[in-house]
Amino acid sequence: MIKINENYLKLQAGYLFPEIGRRVSEFAENNPDADIIKLGIGDVTEPLCPAVIKAMHDAVDEMATSEGFHGYGPEQGYEFLTEAILANDFAPRGVKLDKSEIFISDGSKCDTGNIQEIFGLDNIVAVTDPVYPVYVDTNVMAGRTSNATEGGRYGGIVYMPCTAENNFVPELPSESVDMIYLCYPNNPTGATATKDQLKKWVDYARENKALILFDAAYEAFISDPNIPHSIYEIDGAEEVAIEFRSFSKTAGFTGTRCAFTVVPKALKAYTKAGEAIDVNAIWNRRHSTKFNGCSYITQKGAAAVYTPEGKEQIRNTINLYMDNASRIRKALTELGYNVYGGQNAPYVWLQAPEGMKSWEFFDAVLNKAHVVGTPGAGFGAAGEGYFRLSAFNKPEIVDEAMKRFAKI
Amino acid sequence: MIKINENYLKLQAGYLFPEIGRRVSEFAENNPDADIIKLGIGDVTEPLCPAVIKAMHDAVDEMATSEGFHGYGPEQGYEFLTEAILANDFAPRGVKLDKSEIFISDGSKCDTGNIQEIFGLDNIVAVTDPVYPVYVDTNVMAGRTSNATEGGRYGGIVYMPCTAENNFVPELPSESVDMIYLCYPNNPTGATATKDQLKKWVDYARENKALILFDAAYEAFISDPNIPHSIYEIDGAEEVAIEFRSFSKTAGFTGTRCAFTVVPKALKAYTKAGEAIDVNAIWNRRHSTKFNGCSYITQKGAAAVYTPEGKEQIRNTINLYMDNASRIRKALTELGYNVYGGQNAPYVWLQAPEGMKSWEFFDAVLNKAHVVGTPGAGFGAAGEGYFRLSAFNKPEIVDEAMKRFAKI
């Protein structure tokens, strides 16, 4: 008899975005004339930049000829892309990596979801709260947790609250943890971590032989020169951290699909008997057995992001989004909201009016301003009372949304 | 302390294709003038067809405009593709499926590797021998096996030998099994299964509440009208089978990456307490949590495979490969080899000369004919003494390879 993986039955039914979708659909049905503005899900709106478009057309043309056709590529990605990554994303920041430490993939959701597979089920997982749900859900599916409690938290996971009180960077945990998910610039809070703050975590991981899973999908939105873009800017991080990067937000690849994971060769994990195992080799085995490489055409597009034209073009788009974020911050601050993030990240995180819960505020914003945001409570218990607005939209639409906020 | 998933340490070091690569590199170094012909790895050689190229150019152009830009798509795939699949791959064969039963992905290697995650670790896995290594390796990684024995087999997996004696379609197992991997047309043997043969398996699965994981990646190469293309052509299979399809070999997408998995709503798996669980819903949860959709541009290309021009163009390419297979069969038969497959599949499976082992024959073919094939033993113990040749190459290169075979 075929048995199901019963860990899946522990998952909470109401995944955040489907519930938002349901409420928005219901509202739209009852208010067919309402012009709903979506600042909820973190999806980009600007087209792919001309350098990427040209590179992809060229790659499609190559695929039309016998000489230029590309079949199976290296599962780890083409060197033209890994080398561009090393030369542009890491070398200028003094981070020395080898191309064998870069694994190109079709997305950071996949990478951050899959990475836990290569580690033992007996590791204690620590996540921030609020948190990107994929980190938690994939550990539930694997069996590292017990059932969820009434508050939606799972037994066996250490939740580290991030609120205005700690500037949305968690304290070191008092209990022992093994796998620590950190995301900076943060989704959903828009917070960043300084070098000193990250150093504390790297030191903790080195002392405790813990692993940091560092999601840097939003690093391109950092404008403050003092904020690190990579965890490897911290000495010794290559011994304890895996880093996730993505072209999704950086270059508008949410529908085009390309990302990469850095697994340094200095990183070790351990057998129960204490033997040190090379994590890079194990991830390579996983990646080449359960993945078959990212599309050649897509990788050619991603490589064009690193050309001089590509860099300038994506910078213009990022600036457009960050101008949106800045105007959102200004408008909401003037309206008296407590506003966080939005300075080095495309997300603005605000506090709902005193005494109002996240979903109540969501409903109020939808009903009175016809604007869709994301309730902070959907990202975790410590997000209760907060609300996320995304800066991914056309400037005129963002401005219209802010005008309507005045009516709430 | 971060613990590794120790199941990975059970994996055999020598994955087949890297070992082939090593021997070929060594030979090439020692024989720099040798013109090596590769009929080893099953990668296509013909370019993408014009209909696909045009659709992908159009999709790239869409992505360059605000109006045509596509960000995150449905994780399950766009309806324009799922509907084309239903209308062309299934409806004409009398197979009724709903679009919610189709999951578009970036490849069948991923799908056949990932599918086991949603089932319990206590299921007994059955595979054919020889077998596509991904089925086995992903179950080893998950922890469904013990260490490998000297012969390379893993404890806890039921191996079902497929040899000339049973026409490469296995007998029903005498022990109880829960997850049965079948691949027809078969990689590596090129064998097909008739409706009667598949019906035996479907009946077995229904009687025993077992699950069939049916890999149909090569169905487009079937020319015999009596051979089923889908397991759902067998009555009741929708209650016990998941099917995997791919554009890789059908339409030359090995470097472009698109495939799909069929998970019928009638399919159930069970909790230890015996409760029936809807497998479609669980796979949907896994797919939308650990995957973020296949590239829009790629899906547009895949949909073009189903246009009248696309169908004709891919048919011409498939015919070219199958003409190759036919000439390989003829040449080897004339040379006195026992030859199998190659009639409804792009692989020819031959017996090495009496008393010769697979790797010995591999070395002989490489050294004497400068041709690379795949040693049957690399696919499993029952493949010992066999050898696989792929029909994916230019006709003139295939003919040259056959000329050289005469010298062995």
UniProtKB/TrEMBL annotation, chains A, B:
The cofactors required by this protein are: pyridoxal 5'-phosphate
Aminotransferase class I/classII large domain: residues covered: 35-404
Q: Which CDD domains match?
A: AAT_like
Q: Which reaction does it catalyse?
A: (2S,6S)-2,6-diaminopimelate + 2-oxoglutarate = (S)-2,3,4,5-tetrahydrodipicolinate + L-glutamate + H2O + H(+)
Any one Gene Ontology MF annotation carried by this entry is: pyridoxal phosphate binding
Gene3D superfamilies (UniProt xref): Aspartate Aminotransferase, domain 1, Type I PLP-dependent aspartate aminotransferase-like (Major domain)
Q: Does the keyword RNA-binding apply?
A: no
Name of the protein described by the UniProt record: LL-diaminopimelate aminotransferase
Gene name of this polypeptide: dapL
